[in-house]
Amino acid sequence: MSADAAPPAARRRRELDLLRIAACLIQFPFHTGKVFDHDPNYHIKNLVESGLVDAFTSFAHIWRMPLFFFIAGWAAVTALGSRSPAIFLTDRLKRLGPPLLVGLVLFAPAIKYLERLSGRDLRPTGLVAEPRAFALDYWTWLGHFFGRLNQFSWSHLWFIVYLLLFSVALLPALRALARHYDRMPASPAWLVGPALVCAGIELGLRPIFGDLPNLYRDWANIPEFVLFFLLGAVVAREPAVEAGIAARWPGLLAAGLAGAALHIWFGTASPLGALGRGFAAWCLVAGLLGLGQRLGGSRTAFDRYLGEATFPLYVLHHLPVVALAFLIVPLDWPLWAKAATICAGSAALSFALYHFAIRPWRPTRMLFGMRPRG
């Protein structure tokens, strides 16, 4: 197709909705798992930890945020295909700004407060080995949270910050991609090239900069997330590339699972484990895209409901997980009883808040990044 060929009219892609829903729903077991795995960098930790939970959280961590950024890049370039840059940026700010502010006021301070009450202090530079004694009431604590940089935390809301920054910083690249359609042929390079770049990031940058999304020193995550954001934009505008990837989804998924197994077995500190994580990140995202196409078809009531719920649920979900963990971890229960209660309880609370307090009302829809009903 020529460079000035027009793409078909934008339509809702069911497979992207399903992937977005899957990435959203896995947040509940993933963040529950962080309470019980051996990674110390989490707000609440159980005294007894599990190697099986380590395997699950390591596997989910490889692909869940890359998939989010891939879908976000796809959505961004599609929106720019029918909007001016000014309208695009205004829409991004209206959709992402209010949820970020709501989250920073209502959720992030409460998460950090429960973390400090539990005897932990996770800062942008990492976990403090011996935090000071903490006995502040919540309202006094708010002044510390917003007034002291080493106590401020955006918790899971870092994703929204990064998404806003990428939408602005990568706007020229997105505009260039939006102007053209179907220019690139399918090539084996699209199957292995991104995996090699991811592997290079894991081998060269991850050992230096770590895994905390702290923005100012996050030079392992940022290149990886930018890569997936731009890959989503490219694949959205290049149907031949998408078809080439989708046609090989079983092999990509198998390669991704093999890479994930290497990462889980050897760990990030090992070159082989780092290489496995890099290959797995791209192969799993690309393989899931192809698998999603096989599950395509007409949208259902399930898709429509959860499709618009994913972003509000992402904003909502983390405080219920941390709050329930704060209450349940001290109890003398088996690990799996604690985990099941935290996961199911946080999901129930988040869905109830979404369904009854956010979804029906225009002001709350706007505050959580949703469009008006109808």
Notes on the protein architecture:
The chain is an all-alpha fold and 374 residues long. It has one domain. Helix content is 70%, strand content 1%. The protein contains 16 helices and 2 strands. It has helices at residues 14-25, 27-36, 51-80, 85-117, 138-147, 158-169, 171-179, 189-204, 206-209, 221-237, 239-247, 249-266, 271-294, 301-328, 335-358, 362-367; strands at residues 122-123, 126-127. A two-stranded antiparallel sheet has the order 1-2. The longest helix is centred in the N-terminal third of the chain and has 33 residues, at 85-117. It is globular, with a radius of gyration of 21 Å.
In short:
This protein has 374 residues and is an all-alpha fold.
Distance between the termini: 36 Å
Q: What is the total tally of β strands?
A: 2
Regions with little confidence, pLDDT below 50 for 5+ residues: none
**Sheet with the most strands: spatial strand order:** 1-2
Strand pairing plus helix content: what structural class? mainly alpha
Gross morphology is globular
Mean pLDDT: 93
Number of helices: 16
What is the count of structural domains? 1
Beta content comes to under 5%
SSE string, helices as H and strands as E: HHHHEEHHHHHHHHHHHH
The main pleated sheet reads as:
2 strands, antiparallel
Fraction in helix: over 70%
Radius of gyration equals 21 Å
Q: How are the SSEs ordered, and which strands pair?
A:
Elements: H1 14-25, H2 27-36, H3 51-80, H4 85-117, E1 122-123, E2 126-127, H5 138-147, H6 158-169, H7 171-179, H8 189-204, H9 206-209, H10 221-237, H11 239-247, H12 249-266, H13 271-294, H14 301-328, H15 335-358, H16 362-367
Antiparallel strand pairs: 1-2
Helix pairs in contact: 1-3, 1-13, 1-14, 2-3, 2-14, 2-15, 3-7, 3-10, 3-12, 3-13, 4-5, 4-6, 4-14, 7-10, 8-10, 8-13, 10-11, 11-13, 12-13, 14-15
